Amino acid sequence: MTDSILQNAIQDPLFARVDVALRRGRHISADEDVDEHLFLERFQKPLVAYYDTYDAELYQDPDGFWVLIPRSSSPLRTRDLSRTEMVLGLALAHLRLDPAILRAEMTVTREQLYAHIEALFGGEERLQALLRGGSRGKTRIGIRLREEFDKKLTTLAQLGFISVAAHDRILLRPALARFCGIGRDAERAVALERLVERCHAVLGTAAPPATNVRSATDGTDDDEETIA
Amino acid sequence: MELTRAIAQLTQHEASIHLDTVDLVFLLLVVDHCAAIETSTIDDNDLRALYERAYESAEPAGIRGATAAAAAIDRLRNTRVLARMDGGGMARAGSYALTLLGQHIVDFFLSDELLDAESLTALLEQIRIQVVAIQQQAATLTMRAQWHTHVAVPLRTHVAALMTAIDARARTLAHSQETARERILKEIATHWAAEVASYQAVLDEMTTSMKELQDIAMTAAERIHAILGDLETRCRAGGAEASEAVDAVRFAQRHLDALQRWADVQHESTSAFFQLVQSYLRNVVQLDPGRVLETRLREAARVFLDESWTLRVAAEPSLAIIPTVRTVAISEPEQWERCEDTPEEIEAQAVAELEPLVGAALKSGAASVAAVLRQILPTLPADKRYAAIGRVGAILAGCIARDLLEEPQWVPIGDGIAIEDLPLRAPA
C-alpha cells in the first residue's frame, strides 16, 4: 500500500522539485512554498519512509515547515551554517518573536536587522571587533561586514529562512524557528544536546571568532561553512 | 485652485500645521460652546476661558503663563484653524470662529459614522432609486437643456453627494480598522497567550464585517451598473445633445467602480492581517505560552560567539546532467586528389560554369538579379550556392538597368538568404 503511494509521490510532477530542494537544505514553509508544502503534507508518510532509507529525517517542525536532516551516517552530504549565517539567523529569529513585527507584516529592513544585531550581540568585546570591519555605514557595522551579511542573507533566503519582500525588506519566514531550538529548554546545554542528538545542530564547527578582524569580516577561513 | 498655484502658495508662506493635545481639546470645546449658544462665533473672553479649560483637561499638572491663552489663540489664527470675524461687517470686532480647516479637524475627531452593512445598504439603495428615476426621465428627453437638467445635474450632484457620504464613512471605518489592529497588537504584546481567544474574536469580527461590506458593495454596484448601462445607451441615442449626460453617467460609473475597488482592497487587507496574526498566534505565541523564548534566545545570542555550535542543513550537490551522446558515423577518410590549378583558374572555371545558366535565365525573362538567382540556385549543390551568388552578381554587372534603379529592396532568394535586388535589362 505504502509502496504504491510512494510510487504516486515520485510520479507527481512536484516530486523532483521538492526532492532537489530538500537535498539542498531548503526549508519548505506554507507561507510561500504553497504547492511544495501541500505535496509534503499529502505524501508525508511514504516520503518520511523514503528519506529514512537515506538515513535522513524528513522533519516537520511545530511551526509547520519541512526540512530534510541527514543523520551522521547518511550518505547525503550536509553543510554546517557559518558563524555569520548563525549571527544573522539568531538575530532574525529573535526579531520574529517581537509582536511589533506584525505591524510591518513580518518584514524588517536591513538597517533594522543590523541595528538589532548590534543590540543583541553587543557588549561582547570580541563581537564588537567582529562587527567593526572596514569603514562604517549608518550603523556601527562596517561596510565590509554589511556586504558579507548581504551575501549570507542570500544564502539564508535560498535555504528558506527568509525571502526578500518589496522595497528590499526581509520577510521573516517560519523556518527561522530552527534558530529558536536552542531556547526550547530552560537549560541551554540540554536544548543543545537534544539538537545535536537529532543531528539538527553540531558542536565545534562554528568556532569562536579569532581576534583577527580581517578573517571574520572577509568571511575567510573562520567563516567558511563546513561540508560534511 | 490649481495644484501648482496651491503648492507655490504653501511654499511661499512656509505653511505648516502643528496642533498639540491642548489645541485639539480647545477646538472641541469651541465647537461645543458654539452649539450650546447656537452661534458660529465666539468672543475673546469666552475663547480664553475655553482655552483655560482645555489646558486644565489635557495638562492638569502643567504650568502656564498668564498670557498662554492669548498666545495660543494667536498661534491658532496663524495656523488658520481660527479666524477673526471682524472683516466685512459680518460680526463685531473681537469675535472668532473656526475656519473650515478647524471644523474639519473637529469633525474628524467627533465623527462616529462608520460604514457598516446597514448604512452602506441604505446609501447604495438611495443611489439606485435616484438612478432609476433619472433613467425613467431619460426616456422622454430630446433637448440638450433637458439632458443637462434631468440627467447630468442629478447624476453629478445627488449621486456624487451620496458617494461622498459613503466615502466619508469609509474613511472613518478605515481609521477604526487601523485602531483595532493597533489595539490587537498592543494586547498581544501585553497579554501574550492569556487572551488568545479575545484577539481571535476581534479578528473574526473585523474580517466578517469587511466581507459583508464587500458583498453588499458588489451586489448593489452590479445592480446600479446595469441601470447606468441602460441609461448610457439612452443617452447615446440622444446624440450630441446628450453628450454631457453620457459624461455624467461615466462619472457615476467611475465612482461605483472606485467603491468596489475600495471594498475589495479593504477585505483583502483585513484578510491578510487576519492570516498574519493567526499564524503568529499559532507559531509564536501558542508555542511559547510562557514567553520565555525571547529571553533564552537573547541569552543564546549573547554567548553564541563563546560557544561552538551551529545548525546543520542538507547540502547535496545537484545531480550532474549527462548530455545525450549522439553516435556520429565517421566515414573513411577520402583520398583527396591533389589540385594542380591556381585559385584564379578555379574562379574562372566556376564563373564559366555559371555563365550559360545566367544566359538561360535572362532569356527566359528574368528581369532582376533576384529572379535570375531564384532560377539558378536550386540547380546547384547546396554547398556551392552561397559562393555562386557573388559570381552571378559579377556576371550580371553589365546588365544592370541603371535608368530603372530605385531604392533597392531586400528580397528573399531561398535558403534563408535575402539580397538587395537590382533591375536588369536583357543583353542585346
Structure characterization notes:
The complex is a heterodimer of chains A (228) and B (428). With 228 residues, chain A is an alpha+beta fold. Helix content of chain A is 46%, strand content 11%. Chain A has ten helices and eight strands. Chain A has helices at residues 2-11, 13-23, 34-42, 44-52, 83-96, 110-121, 125-131, 143-158, 188-197, 213-218; strands spanning 56-60, 66-70, 78-80, 107-108, 162-164, 170-172, 201-203, 226-227. A three-stranded antiparallel sheet of chain A has the order 4-6-5. Chain A is globular, with a radius of gyration of 19 Å. The two termini of chain A are 35 Å apart. In chain A, 43% of the residues are buried. Residues 133-138 and 206-222 of chain A have low confidence and may be disordered. By secondary structure, chain B is mainly alpha-helical. Helices cover 64% and strands 6% of the residues of chain B. Chain B is built from 13 helices and six strands. Chain B has helices at residues 3-12, 21-36, 44-58, 68-78, 100-110, 117-138, 144-191, 196-237, 243-285, 293-303, 343-363, 369-376, 382-396; strands spanning 42-43, 82-84, 95-98, 309-314, 410-414, 417-420. Mean pLDDT of chain B is 84; it is low at 88-93. Strand 7 of chain A pairs antiparallel with strand 4 (309-314) of chain B, so a sheet runs across the interface.
Q: Summary?
A:
The complex is a heterodimer of chains A (228) and B (428). Chain A is an alpha+beta fold. Chain A contains ten helices and eight strands.
Keywords:
heterodimer; A: 228 residues; alpha+beta; 10 helices; 8 strands; B: mainly alpha; two-stranded antiparallel ribbon; 6% strand
Spans of chain A of at least 5 consecutive residues whose pLDDT stays below 50 are 133-138, 206-222
Q: How are helices and strands ordered from N to C of chain A?
A: HHHHEEEHEHHHEEHEHE
Shape of chain A: globular
| Radius of gyration of chain A, taken over Cα atoms and rounded to an integer in Å | 19 Å
Termini gap of chain A: 35 Å
**Strand share of the residues of chain B?**
5-15%
Mean pLDDT of chain A: 83
Major pleated sheet of chain A: 3 strands, antiparallel
Helical element count of chain A? 10
Total beta-strand segments of chain B: 6
Report the average pLDDT across residues of chain B: 84
In spatial order, strands of the major sheet of chain B run: 1-3-2
What's the oligomerization state?
Answer: heterodimer
